[in-house]
Design goal:
The chain is α/β, with parallel strands linked by helices. The protein has ten helices and five strands, in the order E-H-H-H-H-H-E-H-E-H-H-E-H-E-H. 51% of the residues lie in helices and 11% in strands.
Length: 202
């Protein structure tokens, strides 16, 4: 019997194409840098300077990136290279509308900066979700179990009532350890198939 009432979706890599990874790869190629090493530095810095949890802004982040990697370009140019790679997946939006019609409550739980707010201004998708938990505003990232317990408390649900969907295995492991149902996302088709197996949709 299905007991899931809420589904918590990651944004980049699930609801949308992974623009952070793709955008950084484009910046690295333009600067003739190793893409894997550049991404590792970019991910480390965004957490170290706590841009992802709202402790600084993109000006601080990009300055750290310039200092450590040697890239050039204005803040606006570098940010644009990333944001233009984030594209919502139509199949996921259709599935979310289907879930909502069946009474399942969709929520966003994302490690994002204020870039997510800019993406909302561009694409207008927040209205499809009951809540949007963005680490930039909550101050807690999915690297911390407290991120999940905070979301559950705000939604007033038990872990067994939630399904968490993310393409990051570490985030999935932390959620699962708290008793939350998890789906390690790879494709919309595979996700939809699992929803059928769970009895969420037919």
């Amino acid at each position: 019997m299905n007991t899931i009432s809420h589904i918590l979706f990651d944004y980049g890599g699930v609801l949308a194409e992974e623009g952070f990874v793709a955008g950084l790869a484009a910046i690295a190629r333009a600067a003739k840098l190793n893409e894997q090493e550049f991404f590792a530095a970019a991910e480390r810095i965004i957490y170290d300077c706590r841009f992802v949890t709202g402790a600084c802004d993109e000006k601080v982040y990009w300055q750290r990136m310039r200092e450590e990697t040697g890239i050039r370009g204005s803040d606006a140019e570098l940010t644009r290279a990333i944001l233009e790679q984030f594209r919502l997946r139509p199949l996921m939006l259709e599935l979310i509308d289907e879930l909502s019609a069946k009474g399942i409550i969709p929520v966003i739980l994302s490690d994002q900066t204020d870039w997510l707010d800019r993406l909302e201004t561009r694409d207008r998708f927040f209205h499809r979700f009951a809540r949007v938990f963005n680490s930039y505003h909550t101050g807690i990232s999915k690297r911390e179990p407290a991120c999940f317990t905070m979301a559950l408390a705000e939604l007033a649900i038990e872990p067994s009532a939630a399904l968490f969907v993310d393409d990051n295995s570490g985030h999935c492991e932390r959620a699962a350890a708290l008793g939350i149902h998890v789906h390690h996302f790879s494709t919309p088709a595979r996700f939809k198939a699992e929803l059928g197996q769970l009895g969420v949709i037919k």
